[in-house]
Amino acid sequence: MAKARSSVYVRRGFSRRYESLRRAWYYFKRSPLSLIGLAIVSITIFIALFAPYIAPHPESAGLYMNFEEAYQPPSWKHPFGTDAYGRDVFSRVLFGFRYSMMLAAVVLSLAAPPGIILGLIAGYYRGTWIDMVIMRFADIFIAVPPLVLALAITSVLTPNIFNAMMAVTLMWWPWYTRLMYNMVSSIRNEYYVIALELLGAKKSYIMFREILPNCLGPILTKLTLDVGWVILIGAALSFVGLGAQPPTPDLGTMVAEGGQYLPTYWWISVFPALAIAFIILGFNLLGDGIRDIFAATER
Amino acid sequence: MERPPLIEAKDIYVGYKTYRGIMKVLNGVSFHINEGEKIGFIGEAGGGKTTLMKTILRILPPNATNVRGKVIYRGKLDLMSVSEKEMKRIRRRGLSMIFQDPTSALNPVFKVGEQLMDIIKYSRLEEGIKLSKKELREEALKLLEEVKLPDPQRVFDSYPFQLSGGMRQRVVIAMALVSARELLIADEPTTNLDVTIQDQILRLINEIVERRRLSVILISHALGAVRKMTNRTYVLYAGDIVETASSDELFSNPLHPYTRALIEAAPKLTGEGIGKGIPGRIPDYVNPPSGCRFHPRCEYATERCRKEKPPLVEVRKGHWVACWLYVKR
Amino acid sequence: MAQVNSKEPILRVDHLRKYFRVSLGIVRAVDDISFEVMPGETFGLIGESGSGKSTTGHVIVGMYAPTSGKIYYKGIDISVPAPKRPRHVRKEIQIVFQDPASSLNPSKTVFDIVALPIKLYKGIKKKEELENEVAKLLELVELPPEYYMYRYPRELGGGEKQAVAIARALATEPSFIVLDEPTSALDVSIQAKIINTLVNLQRKFNLSYLFITHDLGLARNFTTRLAIMYLGKIVEIGPTERVFENPLHPYTQMLLSAIPVLTEEEEKLKPRGIASRGEIGSPMNPPPGCRFNPRCPFADEVCRKIEPQLIEAEKNHWVACHLYIKRVQ
What we know:
The structure holds three protein chains of three kinds.
Chain A: H1 2-6, H2 14-29, H3 32-54, H4 89-124, H5 129-143, H6 146-156, H7 161-187, H8 191-199, H9 203-211, H10 216-239, H11 251-259, H12 267-298
Helix pairs in contact in A: 2-12, 3-4, 3-12, 4-5, 4-7, 4-10, 4-12, 5-7, 6-7, 7-10, 10-11, 10-12, 11-12
Chain B: E1 7-18, E2 21-33, E3 38-42, H1 49-57, E4 64-73, E5 77-78, H2 84-94, E6 95-98, H3 102-105, H4 112-126, H5 133-146, H6 152-156, H7 165-179, E7 183-187, H8 195-212, E8 215-219, H9 223-229, E9 232-237, E10 240-246, H10 247-252, H11 257-265, H12 303-307, E11 313-316, E12 319-321
Parallel strand pairs in B: 3-8, 3-9, 6-7, 7-8
Antiparallel strand pairs in B: 1-2, 1-4, 4-5, 9-10, 10-12, 11-12
Helix pairs in contact in B: 4-5, 4-7, 5-7, 7-8
Chain C: H1 2-6, E1 11-22, E2 25-37, E3 42-46, H2 53-61, E4 68-73, E5 76-77, H3 87-90, E6 93-96, H4 100-103, H5 110-122, H6 127-140, H7 145-148, H8 158-170, E7 176-180, H9 188-205, E8 208-213, H10 216-222, E9 225-230, E10 233-239, H11 240-245, H12 250-258, H13 264-269, H14 301-305, E11 311-314, E12 317-319, H15 322-328
Parallel strand pairs in C: 3-8, 3-9, 6-7, 7-8
Antiparallel strand pairs in C: 1-2, 1-4, 4-5, 9-10, 10-12, 11-12
């Protein structure tokens, strides 16, 4: 009997999921810039995934030397020219996408979850000692200029890509705590949260199952925007020699290496630099587009 | 020969673009307001009252689409086809609107006086008059006095958050008065205000329009306020005028099933119960009901109502209804 | 009334105070009020914003502890926040909040929202059983479960949202429900439906309501007895009919006279010669003596100095005003 009846209810089926996607797409595509961002990000991710297969000279990614081909300007064979060791800059840039995306993925997947959870707890317990402890702790990290902290850490430890990532992670989580704290401390006053508290629902249930899902929009927006920023800081660290070390095909390292050959062999540093700009631009435009979706659907 | 109406709107259609398609909100609305007349619009939220007002002032949001119809101003100018610049001049010169939410009409980071002076400044510049800072200040203070704010000097130097809801609404009225010389549109001017404050604000608006001989369009969910304040009332349901009559006639002798249910549902002080309300809600404008838009919620609906839109017919002198119940075969 | 008095009250509020400490001082939201609610009745708590009516409701459901005073539910002391109350008492007292938009979690379906209290209080875990329980509750509030069960709040109108909130409140099978302005955000047509639903539920389950509202007209049609609050105090309390036929406190008279009404019969009920003026003061530093004295046309020296106590001016009809204290003495 119960079974028979339950099949009667209009469920959240494919058509209604499709409906919300359609709404999201409508608000997203209203701005052509968001579409450009989506295109750039798609290209970036594609390159990052398939760099070894699409790079014309995959051997250039590593310790490869061919001095006969060194310092060649852009040509059909080497669209972005070659560097001091005769490596194909175009191939190295494609691999650079891979490293950049990896850096962003690792840093954000390490920084965001603890940041989000701490912010959720602090926001829910706003005004208590729990809030005080968590938020002051986060403030300490926020107060130190990010690049300076990263510089300090990587220069004390061995400068390599792993330590660079740790350093960036360490300064990144408090921003998620901040974001969550602000959202949650207003959501926790909504009547539906109060109703749950009066009913005696578990605090962990209220926080993670009722409040958290309503914070996903801004978090997703921030994650997208942050990909660009993490890559930028990673590149900056590499540029000053504290991040990825040669011969890693890291975009920041490549810009730094190529810098000494400016302006004669401009292509060695200019193309990696443009690649960094390309990725950051893409993620920023996409992030704005995602923000538009949530801003519109919240109304 | 009678003077032409101040504003005569003819057959207005307005839609809004959304992700699901076009919301066909206004569905051929016509109304008029004479000089010095006070008219009211009633009907549930989402019925198109605010859209109608925004249409005649030409301040529709950018996703408005398929805007058709005529808004004849003083019998000669069609406001729908004049240039943007000309429209701006007409608005500044005589048409003004008080919006629903006094808080969002004020900028929180500027003092009340500064905001008021700004409005006066640009309004006067439009007329080619450049006022000095001192003159602007005097005029602003005069307006704050006109809306009976106690201690206008203090209000002048206050930020909006330092004022109560009632005082903020008075400030918003003062701002509207800068350019209200012909018509004042008050869109839910007392929503969210306490009843004793609502009473004071309505009396204030009444006093001002009498003194300044303004025409008024009052939109309110407080039916009693519309009855008391206006000469004539239009009932708007889902983008259609379903009934109009003099306010006394309309409220004492409503004809359209929608108007009747609405008035019946308003709680009376005599305690006779509050009717059964109206089932359902305002329709989805993307796929509005065929025929009479009220038919899905109407207990008298017939086959004809589902198929044909009823015309607005004069049932009694000055009392018009759009309902097949009142159309003689 | 005699019959009602012979019964034990279901809820007794005794010298309740609730102060909030804020950065600028102490807000005396509720300042020494007492009243009783009888089983099966609807008791109205009427006042403007800042009167403390909502805070009273919030303390009763246990959102926070009272500053002083006691609340008894069927004789059991419940003057503590909800988590500290015995489970069987906690399920007995429910609340429906004011703002339908904030009452329901936008990311949960109607099923999730209504099923949660059933899971918590009836220990039902199986999906099919939960669906059946939720379906029963939705039917009670006149939302066909076939359509509404898996809807999200954004797909519902304000009235439907509020009906879901009522279903959630009913899920624990309470006998006392605080209705905190449940219809203030709704159109009268929808309001009437919700109120009728509440009346039917009350008859069916012998529910007692504490109905908090600013709408006197609605209170007239829905409550059996009511108390008028002003700045944290009860100024008048009595059977609804008596308060409307013979409003005693000048504030009650002012409220009544401020209501824009729809019929001549109502017009006759409105007290004359007491136009509304001023605004409710700050509960942070209420005026000395009678708190209404700055707005009262009858205020004299005594009113400005001595706080009037509630006296029984006619049977079961109490008022806190020096006009009547003098008359009695």
